[in-house]
């Protein structure tokens, strides 16, 4: 079973049902399926074959979806790349994946020209006006043509590059089975979503959350409504106009939407599922959301590129276990182990391992692209070594406490940076914070915090340190507090802790 076959089934069963809405464009399942086949014929004429990579560096739009499903139709592998990445970051991914086709908007031509020249044999497909040596998407997708039969063993559908917060990104190879089981089965069972739902995408389609809602909709026969670019006021207006029922978001987006929903409470009356992932979702924020959206239920989950949705937390559990990421999804095995590979006791912290059958069969990646050593290090006996540190309670609820590489060892005590960051953000003056370990002559390592303040707010280092002392053990409080206008982040908004370590070293060297 493959993604393009599911799309074909919906085109046959509900041809006129809206598959996608983006701006003024509305396209039904039959029309989308026909457009995908024309795009696939165009890619085939360019020489794209089973196993080739098709890199999509495209803004949100119907073209992204058509080219992705066209690549699947040929047995090719999609490499989705967030358009917020810089040309240097795109070059790394392109050189690593060696695509047969690189698709981009004409506005990115100048930034990507050197990359296209470096990729031997790569064809450039462009949305918008095509230039020299480029193929216009409108021409590529204009004609029907014969399509090859895809071998049964052509199971890979996508290479998603990790965010690279701790090093160079790696390409996680994802199979059709993983996409179908997670987005067409597990999500439907866990969240109660289906073909009558209308799903709003506020993030780039190349981002894991945007891809998730897109694949939810097209696997289940629903309608995906895609924003070209996120704007809180426009999102709320779109929810009202399109009668959105499923909204995927991170807590930051919830904070941005709330003022607009508060000024127009009826705008969100159609919402019935709020699918939340990302950073911790404060209980008070959940209460505000539910008070404004009484018809909606919150479903949150913990996921990663390599292992899909590992856990989920239902609506009622949001308030009974607010600090938890939930319990393992049925069918997913988890272990928590110490540095010696032994299972830790309930309540103790260990590295999270995940398994769900053979890699690539159900929800986990098949491998890292062209990285056998990294694959062997990350996947052992079928277990994905996530690098996340977690603990579990007696009822099986999991609590993520830190990334293994981010833990600070100070005076023999393990200090989990996530706990310190949450304490800092609880201060009214703090907008965001990121915590790292720095060398300390006495304790080996000490806690250093980088802090963004709320607009117009003031707070001193000592005040924040004392605030932390009131919430967490004294040995966990920051020794150093550095104020920044903005934390360095990658294209997905994650704080770049390697950059922070370099910044801290420079600041401490000046003292």
- How many separate domains make up the residues? 3
Distance between the termini: 61 Å
Roughly what is the average pLDDT, rounded to an integer? 91
Q: Total number of β-strand segments?
A: 27
CATH architecture designation of the largest domain: 3-Layer(aba) Sandwich
**What topology, given as strand order, has the largest sheet?**
2-1-11-10-12-13-14-15-16
Rg from C-alpha positions?
A: 23 Å
The best one-word shape is globular
Biggest sheet: strands, sense, closure? Answer: 9 strands, mixed
The percent of residues in helical segments reads: 25-40%
* % residues in beta strands: 25-35%
Count of individual helical segments:
16
Low-confidence stretches: none
CATH topology of the largest domain: Rossmann fold
* Secondary structural class: alpha/beta
Question: Which CATH C-level class of the largest domain is it?
Answer: Alpha Beta
Notable traits:
511 residues; alpha/beta; Rossmann fold; GMP Synthetase, Chain A, domain 3; 16 helices
How would you describe the overall organization of this protein?
The chain is α/β, with parallel strands linked by helices and 511 residues long. The protein folds into three domains: 1-154, Rossmann fold (3-Layer(aba) Sandwich); 192-295, Rossmann fold; 407-510, ANL, C-terminal domain (GMP Synthetase, Chain A, domain 3, 2-Layer Sandwich), CATH 3.30.300.30. Strands 2-1-11-10-12-13-14-15-16 form a nine-stranded mixed β-sheet. A hairpin with a 2-residue loop joins β23 and β24. α1 (3-13) crosses α2 (29-45), α7 packs across α8 and α10 (251-263) runs parallel beside α11 (283-292). The longest helix is centred in the first third of the chain and has 17 residues, at 29-45.
């Amino acid at each position: 079973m493959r993604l393009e076959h599911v799309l074909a089934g919906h085109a046959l069963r509900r041809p006129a049902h809206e598959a996608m809405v983006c701006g003024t464009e509305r396209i039904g399942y039959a029309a989308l399926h026909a457009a995908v086949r024309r795009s696939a014929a165009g890619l085939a004429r360019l020489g794209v074959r089973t196993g080739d990579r098709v890199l999509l560096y495209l803004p949100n739009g119907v073209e992204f979806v058509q080219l992705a499903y066209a690549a699947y139709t040929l047995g090719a592998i999609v490499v989705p790349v967030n358009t917020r990445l810089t040309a240097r970051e795109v070059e790394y991914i392109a050189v690593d994946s060696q695509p047969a086709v690189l698709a981009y908007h004409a506005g990115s031509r100048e930034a990507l020209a050197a990359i296209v020249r470096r990729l031997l044999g790569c064809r450039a497909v462009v949305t918008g006006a095509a230039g020299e040596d480029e193929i216009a998407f409108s021409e590529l997708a204009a004609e029907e043509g014969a399509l090859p039969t895809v071998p049964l063993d052509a199971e890979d559908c996508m290479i998603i590059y990790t965010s690279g917060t701790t090093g160079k990104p790696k390409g996680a190879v994802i199979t059709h089975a993983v996409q179908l089981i997670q987005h067409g089965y597990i999500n439907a069972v866990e969240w109660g979503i289906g073909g009558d739902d209308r799903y709003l995408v506020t993030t780039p389609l190349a981002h894991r959350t945007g891809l998730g809602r897109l694949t939810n909709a097209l696997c289940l026969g629903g309608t995906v409504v895609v924003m070209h670019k996120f704007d809180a006021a426009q999102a709320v207006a779109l929810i009202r106009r399109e009668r959105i029922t499923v909204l995927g978001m991170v807590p930051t987006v919830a904070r941005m939407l709330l003022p607009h929903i508060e000024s127009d409470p009826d705008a969100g009356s159609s919402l019935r599922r709020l699918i939340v992932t990302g950073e911790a979702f404060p209980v008070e924020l959940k209460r505000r959301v539910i008070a404004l959206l009484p018809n909606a239920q919150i479903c949150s989950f913990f996921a990663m590129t390599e292992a899909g949705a590992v856990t989920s937390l239902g609506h009622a559990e949001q308030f009974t276990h607010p600090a938890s990421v939930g319990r393992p999804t049925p069918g997913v095995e988890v272990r928590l182990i110490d540095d010696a590979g032994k299972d830790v006791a309930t309540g103790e912290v260990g590295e999270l391992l995940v398994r769900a059958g053979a890699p690539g069969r159900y929800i986990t990646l098949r491998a890292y692209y062209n990285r056998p050593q990294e694959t062997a290090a990350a996947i052992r006996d079928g277990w994905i070594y996530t690098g996340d540190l977690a603990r579990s309670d007696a009822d099986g609820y999991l609590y993520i406490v830190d990334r293994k590489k981010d833990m600070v060892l100070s005076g023999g005590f393990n200090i989990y940076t996530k706990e310190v960051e949450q304490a800092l953000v609880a201060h009214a003056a703090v907008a965001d914070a990121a915590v790292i370990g720095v060398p300390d002559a006495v304790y080996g390592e000490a806690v250093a915090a980088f802090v963004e303040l709320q607009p117009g707010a003031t707070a001193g280092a000592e005040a924040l340190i004392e605030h932390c002392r009131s919430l967490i053990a004294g040995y966990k409080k920051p020794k150093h507090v550095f104020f920044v206008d903005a934390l360095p982040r990658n294209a997905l908004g994650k704080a770049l802790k390697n950059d922070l370590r370099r910044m801290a070293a420079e600041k401490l060297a000046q003292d």
